[in-house]
């Protein structure tokens, strides 16, 4: 791919020290973001391409790589990409969300610089501006283990990325107009697998090929807009080996429920008759089921895929039980040599409990989504810049939302920036309560957390006795089933401004998100990097003198 190379950085100036680290390999990408016309569902529509590709190119990195991506915005409106699951240690400046960065203006470029520090796993990227995610500009982001760190399975024959998601034939601008007018998005029109859906007419080209007897890794991510998807491969079982950066206990599944924003890595062995097989993704928990298919072809195989596609499970109790079967592999090493299980999260005292309740209501006659009664609005000045430049009081206030464990669903919605203040190093319990009839998926930038419980009903302190305090998977998303709750535990040890959001773009766009400010009170480089030299400025800070840098 144009603009990509690998090198070792021997030394760096102070100005770039905040995002690139001496001695670690650096990979470079140049991305041209453009509009194009494709027919993913058989109808021509405008899509967003990266270097002419839909989905966009894979980022193939290794633990501690420095990643430099020069993004040229050739669209007619501002654009911004976030790196979902990359923890951006001490570096929320590069997180690619509107609370930390100004969007890239049309006809200009911005160069992201970040390190995939102490991470492995299967992740993705996608745009956060407007409803651009409904048009493309998304892709896979993998972080491979370093050679010196053992992986708890044999090296696969090949490593494939599978981007699944529901899809609308309406354009991203039409969908945005619906939301701006106060209307909800209707049901999607289909399901895509890597931007396509097999027709089954004998003319479908394979998405992937396998050699008989070999084992392959498939990284499956749901980058869709509205629906959880069930994923399965005709005639083949899947051995789960990793979830969003954590090695898992290697259970075998016939199918996996992949909720929006989630990623799984599985091993699949080509041990069946050499011919074509379908991989299938179909919507879950929806009145009408939409299905997308893709072809896996055995090398030198003969024969089409059987038209009999395996059926998905029914109901969400099955999905809840599958979630409970996911376990952290305590003996495997992840990004560091020490086993994952050497971190005993279940023995840490909880510093603070935060309860978050999602809701749908109307403000000024228009549909809005909220958390504890506050529907987030992105100010023109990114929250991080307002804080850094010392004009916080002109842009937002901390802790306007009530988050105590006794919180109940709010009757009225307030529209304003929603920002929590959490003390660095606090060990926090977050409860997500979902009183609605639709499943919710949540994501937290900047962190991985322990998903210790998902249960029906309402949360009470007595429910803590049901927490998995031994081997819950450390990950960055959690689903909450209808009329249910979920609990996560984590240490807020990463200074910066971090987005906690609904992974359903409609709900995020209309306010179901907030930011967590983990303040670098001492303005120390030990806690957080300086604002990058090339950072874009906008809103009230445009034209202001840059504050003095952090000290050691």
Automatic annotation (TrEMBL):
Pfam families, sorted:
Cu-oxidase, Cu-oxidase_2, Cu-oxidase_3
The answer to whether the entry has keyword Oxidoreductase is no
List the InterPro entries: Cu-oxidase-like_N (IPR011707), Cu-oxidase_2nd (IPR001117), Cu-oxidase_C (IPR011706), Cu-oxidase_fam (IPR045087), Cupredoxin (IPR008972), CuRO_2_AO-like (IPR034271)
Q: Does the keyword Glycoprotein apply?
A: yes
Q: Which residues form a coiled coil?
A: none
Residue ranges annotated for the Plastocyanin-like domain, each copy included: 32-147, 158-300, 381-519
Signal peptide per UniProt: 1-22
Record's family? Answer: Belongs to the multicopper oxidase family.
Q: What is this protein called?
A: L-ascorbate oxidase-like protein
Give the originating organism: Pyrus ussuriensis x Pyrus communis
């Amino acid at each position: 791919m144009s603009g990509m190379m690998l090198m070792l950085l021997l030394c760096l100036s102070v100005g770039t020290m905040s995002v690139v680290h001496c001695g670690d390999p650096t990979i470079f990408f140049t991305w041209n973001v453009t509009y194009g016309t494709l027919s993913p569902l058989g109808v021509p529509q405008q899509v967003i391409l990266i270097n002419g590709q839909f989905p966009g190119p894979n980022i193939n990195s290794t633990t501690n790589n420095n990643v430099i991506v020069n993004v040229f915005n050739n669209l007619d409106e501002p654009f911004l990409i976030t790196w979902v699951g990359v923890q951006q240690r001490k570096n929320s400046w590069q997180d690619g969300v509107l609370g930390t960065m100004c969007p890239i203006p049309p006809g200009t470029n911005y160069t992201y610089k970040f390190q995939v520090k102490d991470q492995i796993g299967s992740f993705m990227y996608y745009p956060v501006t407007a409803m651009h995610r409904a048009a493309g500009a998304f892709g896979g982001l993998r972080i491979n283990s370093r050679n010196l760190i053992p992986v708890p399975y044999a090296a696969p024959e090949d490593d494939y990325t599978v981007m699944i998601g529901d899809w609308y034939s309406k354009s991203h601008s039409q969908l945005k107009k619906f939301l701006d007018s106060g209307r909800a998005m209707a049901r999607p029109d289909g399901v895509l697998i890597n931007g396509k859906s097999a027709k089954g007419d004998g003319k479908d080209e394979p998405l992937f090929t396998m050699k008989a007897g070999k084992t392959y890794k498939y990284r499956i991510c749901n980058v869709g807009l509205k629906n959880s998807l069930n994923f399965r491969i005709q005639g083949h079982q899947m051995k789960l080996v990793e979830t969003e950066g954590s090695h898992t206990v290697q259970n075998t599944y016939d199918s996996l429920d992949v909720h929006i924003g989630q990623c799984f890595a599985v091993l699949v062995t080509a041990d069946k008759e050499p011919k074509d097989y379908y991989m299938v993704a179909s919507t879950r928990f929806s009145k009408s089921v939409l299905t997308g298919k893709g072809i896996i072809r055995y090398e030198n195989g003969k024969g089409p895929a059987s038209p009999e596609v395996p059926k998905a499970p029914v109901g969400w109790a099955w999905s809840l039980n599958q979630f409970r079967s996911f376990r952290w592999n305590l003996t495997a090493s992840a990004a560091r040599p020490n086993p994952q299980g050497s971190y005993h999260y279940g023995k840490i005292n909880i510093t603070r409990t935060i309860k978050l309740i999602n809701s749908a209501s109307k403000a000024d006659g228009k549909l809005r989504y909220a958390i504890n009664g506050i529907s987030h609005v992105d100010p023109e000045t990114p929250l991080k810049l307002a804080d850094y430049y010392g004009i916080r009081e002109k842009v937002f206030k901390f802790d306007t939302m009530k988050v105590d464990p006794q919180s109940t669903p709010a009757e009225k919605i307030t529209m304003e920036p929603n920002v929590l203040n959490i003390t660095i190093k606090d060990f926090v319990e977050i409860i997500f309560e979902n009183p609605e009839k639709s499943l919710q998926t949540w994501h937290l930038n900047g962190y991985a957390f322990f998903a210790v419980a998902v249960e029906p009903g309402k949360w009470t302190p007595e429910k803590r006795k049901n927490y998995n305090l031994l081997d819950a998977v450390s990950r960055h998303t959690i689903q909450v089933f209808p009329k249910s709750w979920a609990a996560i535990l984590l240490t807020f040890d990463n200074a910066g401004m971090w987005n906690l959001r609904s992974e359903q773009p409609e709900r995020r766009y209309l306010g179901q998100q907030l930011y967590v400010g983990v303040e670098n009170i001492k303005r120390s480089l030990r806690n957080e990097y300086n604002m990058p030299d090339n950072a874009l400025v906008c809103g009230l800070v445009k034209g202001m003198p840059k504050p003095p840098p952090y000290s050691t």
